[in-house]
Amino acid sequence: MKRKWYMQPEMLVAISALITSLVAVVVAMYSAYIDRAYAKASVWPSVLIARSWQSNRYEYIVLNQGNGPAIINYVTMKVNGQPVTQWQDVLNIVAPDVLVNYQQSHISNGVIRPGQQIDAFKVNDPTMVSALLKATFEVEMCYCSIYEDCWISTGVEAPQAVSTCEIPANGFLQ
């Protein structure tokens, strides 16, 4: 009696090799997926926008708390509901008659290293500090990782993932 084709020893070996190969391909694909996820997580930026103050000092800071660089694509800011493009606009809105010296750093584009803190704005004047504390700030910063995963940080909530950073027309220039 002749055996069926799939019951012959050579075919059983061939089918076993095919199944083993398919399993190996699936395992390799899953391993590549896990490696990619790990690589992304190992360079994930997490940007914090915050303010700090005392009676005679007010600061706005930007800090990258993540593991990877944050590529800043844009920043928008509103003070008391009014869009601003530079720190002088902020001062003109909150205390138009007060002249003060202030320090500023550029935050609207560039790269923030992991662990780097940028003192975006600093003023040491009690009158201006009081005016700034009464103001309402709405800040939005869109940044991406080196893998082009992007987030928006507002300083109020945890950063939200977005597909891309579409640069708005009314961006903050400093």
Describe this structure in words.
- With 174 residues, this protein is α+β, with helices and mostly antiparallel strands.
- It has 2 domains: 5-42; 47-162, Immunoglobulin-like.
- It is 29% helix and 33% strand.
- It has 3 helices and 10 strands.
- The strands form 2 sheets. Strands 3, 4, 6, 8, 9 and 10 form a 6-stranded antiparallel sheet that branches.
- It is rod-shaped, with a radius of gyration of 27 Å.
- The mean pLDDT is 89.
Characteristic key phrases:
four-stranded antiparallel beta sheet, rod-shaped, 33% strand, six-stranded antiparallel beta sheet, Immunoglobulin-like, 10 strands
- Helical percent range? 25-40%
CATH fold assignment of the largest domain: Immunoglobulin-like
Radius of gyration using CA atoms only: 27 Å
Any idea how many domains? 2
Report the structural category: alpha+beta
The first-to-last residue Cα distance is: 88 Å
In the CATH scheme, the class of the largest domain would be Mainly Beta
Main sheet record: 6 strands, antiparallel
Please trace the helix and strand order, writing H or E for each element. Answer: HEEEEHEEEHEEE
**Integer average pLDDT:** 89
